[in-house]
Design goal:
It contains five helices and 14 strands. By secondary structure, the protein is an alpha+beta fold.
Length: 408
């Protein structure tokens, strides 16, 4: 009886312990689950924040690129203004030098004329003084003293000659005086022109100094923008691991597309393809092998990138994407590194691809027939993309080829 009681007591103890321990074990499992859920939520939030930061970084990079382009345009315009101002200043200086030369010539002419004027005036004064000293009746006395008709004629001729010479000297003196006054007037006008040209040259020099100061300021602004761009690119490269994964994903996705589209079509496309982003015709990255801007390795760029306008600057984000030709939509959705993508089959093994569209930007669905020039989507920056642009591909039986011969 005592043994049976001991067994019952033992079983009761084990049962009680089991009942007590089971909730504890369940509670520990539930706490771990909540912990994992919280960690997963934090990871998702961190990923979303990283994506948002990357998108913000891309927008800022594009804005800086726009600003650098605008600054370069300003610098070119200022440089042109500086060249014109320099030419005007040099022309004005040349004109001032020519006028100064004319002033020197006129001054020499005035000096010579003044000397001749002084000589003539002195000669006339000397003759007048001599006549005065000899008296008012000098010529009459000279004539009355003649001893013969011949002597009278000779004395008369001499008197007339003296009078004519005096008159000629007086006339020459008057003409010299007029010439001197004219030369002085011309000198005054030339000196006035010199002063005017000097003032214009000084104003042009000040304008040139202001332009050079603006030029230096713009160069400094450009350097600051370049430095900021470098900082952002460094920040971008710090996330190179993530970008490399996206790039590898894009390459893998490209191969999957090639495998899906593999066929034996003729590869013939009737006519010319429509430009996929009307109003934006700058190819920022062409088809072909290139040194990757982030990884520094040689990779095939399987299409062309159509980017923002530079002159005048205009963002391509949100621009309409149109079908390059008549066909059927065979894909409309997310494709890894390509982001939101539309693929259109044009027959004969020819397929066009439109990548990096924003969420909600695709305007067609799989199986839909589309016509050449019809809107099928919107330019964005999803997938492996550092800024808004359209990645456009032409594939023949799955193999990417240069789109440009089809577009021109």
């Amino acid at each position: 009886m005592r043994r049976r009681s001991a067994v019952i007591t033992f079983l009761s103890t084990v049962l009680a312990a089991t009942l007590l321990l089971t909730p504890l074990a369940f509670a520990a499992t539930e706490a771990e689950l909540r912990e994992h859920e919280e960690a997963a939520r934090e990871a998702r939030e961190a990923a979303d924040a990283a994506d948002a930061a990357a998108a913000k970084l891309a927008v800022e990079l594009e804005g800086i690129a726009d600003r650098i382009d605008a600054i370069e345009s300003d610098i070119a315009a200022i440089a042109d203004d500086i060249a014109k101002a320099t030419a005007r200043r040099e022309r004005l200086q040349s004109e001032v030098d020519q006028l100064r030369s004319q002033v020197n010539e006129k001054q020499s002419q005035i000096d010579a004329t003044q000397a001749e004027h002084d000589r003539q005036q002195g000669l006339l004064a000397s003759r007048v003084q001599s006549t005065y000293k000899q008296g008012d009746f000098f010529f009459l006395e000279m004539l009355f003293d003649a001893v013969s008709i011949e002597d009278l004629i000779a004395r008369t001729t001499l008197a007339q000659r003296v009078i004519r010479q005096n008159e000629q000297i007086a006339s020459d003196l008057k003409e010299t005086q007029i010439e001197l006054e004219k030369a002085k007037a011309e000198l005054d006008r030339t000196l006035e022109a010199v002063n005017t040209k000097r003032a214009e040259a000084a104003a042009e020099e000040q304008k040139l100094l202001d332009l050079r100061a603006r030029h230096a300021s713009k160069l400094n602004e450009q350097q600051q923008a370049e430095d900021r761009k470098t900082e952002l690119m460094v920040a971008n490269k710090e996330s190179a691991k993530k970008l490399r994964a996206l790039a590898e994903e894009e390459e893998a996705e490209s191969q999957r597309i090639a495998d899906e589209l593999y066929g034996s079509g003729s590869g013939y496309f009737a006519g010319e393809m429509a430009w996929p982003v009307p109003g934006f015709y700058r190819v920022s990255s062409p088809y072909g092998y290139r040194i990757h801007p982030i990884f520094g390795t040689r990779k095939l760029h399987t299409g062309i990138d159509i980017g923002r306008n530079l002159d005048p600057p205009k963002s391509i984000g949100g621009a309409a994407i149109v079908s390059a030709g008549d066909g059927t939509v065979i894909y409309a959705g997310w494709r890894g590194g390509y982001g939101n993508t539309v693929m259109v089959d044009h027959g004969n093994g020819v397929v066009t691809l439109y990548a990096h569209q924003p969420s909600g930007g695709i305007t067609v669905s799989k199986g839909q027939r589309v016509s050449r020039g019809q809107r099928i989507g919107t330019v964005g920056s999803t997938g492996y993309s550092t800024g808004p642009h359209l990645h456009f591909e032409v594939r023949i039986n799955g193999t990417p080829t240069d789109p440009m011969p089809y577009l021109r």
